[in-house]
Design goal:
Elements (H helix, E strand, L loop, with lengths): L4 H9 L8 H15 L5 E8 L2 E8 L1 H13 L3 H8 L2 E4 L11 H7 L4 E10 L2 E9 L7 H55 L3 H15 L3 H14 L4
Length: 234
């Protein structure tokens, strides 16, 4: 079991973003937390986007269920940790009075304590690493320190993965947009040649066909280009 924060950094640094997606990185982070953090009986990662919270990765079915109960009642340590980017502790689930008695559900699942560490991933995405201990008082000062150190390294890894995913998605959208523009320009050229009209008039014709047929301009253009390439009578 790794108790040196530099081990966390080394392990997280081995994740190759080009070989996995954001979900894969989240699964790796949750798995590493479960293997290496002291007293981590079950682990989950909460993400909050545009006010909507969900569990993005987890180790242990109870962790997932207990997270979802927090989301349903809009209260709990994971939500507080994510919102404030801080650490929230529930030392003894059975006697916990905060969060509308949510601690009773934790105790009912045979778990004794909870530690949530905020993960301020980026401006529009907050998160929390949630560690469920199997006994009350599972997380002493050293365990909290290690969980916070892990959280700092995990935040960097998840921020990089989120940026990589966003950049890849943007590049894909740009590629599609460029291809759409190219086929529309081809179709305009075909119409201009057939009808001896201007580029603006050709685009107006494409737009009207698009509206009349309830299809995208790009799809109308692609069909025209394909039909022209097949030739007469094809």
């Amino acid at each position: 079991m790794a108790h040196d924060p530099t081990d966390f950094a080394a392990e997280l640094g081995r994740i190759k973003l080009g070989e996995t997606d954001l979900n894969g990185v989240l699964d790796r982070v949750a798995g590493l937390a479960h293997r290496t953090l002291p007293q981590a009986g079950q682990v989950s990662i909460t993400l909050v986007r545009e006010g909507s919270a969900y569990t993005a990765a987890y180790v242990g079915a109870d962790a997932l269920r207990l997270d979802q109960q927090q989301y349903e009642q809009a209260a709990g340590p994971c939500l507080e940790a994510a919102a404030a980017g801080t650490t929230v502790s529930m030392p003894d689930a059975a006697s916990e009075s905060r969060w509308s008695g949510w601690g009773r559900h934790v105790a009912g699942a045979g778990l004794g304590s909870v530690l949530s560490v905020g993960l301020p991933i980026e401006e529009r995405v907050a998160g929390a690493l949630n560690i469920y201990g199997e006994r009350p008082g599972a997380f002493d000062d050293e365990a909290v320190r290690l969980a916070q150190a892990f959280g700092r390294y995990a935040t960097v890894a998840l921020a990089n993965a989120h940026l990589y995913a966003s950049t890849a998605s943007l590049a894909q959208h740009m590629q599609v947009a460029m291809e759409s523009r190219a086929v529309i320009e081809q179709a305009k050229g075909i119409i201009m040649g057939e009808r001896r009209c201007t580029a603006d008039e050709a685009f107006a014709i494409l737009t009207k066909v698009s509206q009349d047929s309830n299809r995208k301009v790009r799809d109308v253009a692609a069909a025209l280009v394909e039909r022209t390439q097949r030739g007469p009578g094809a």
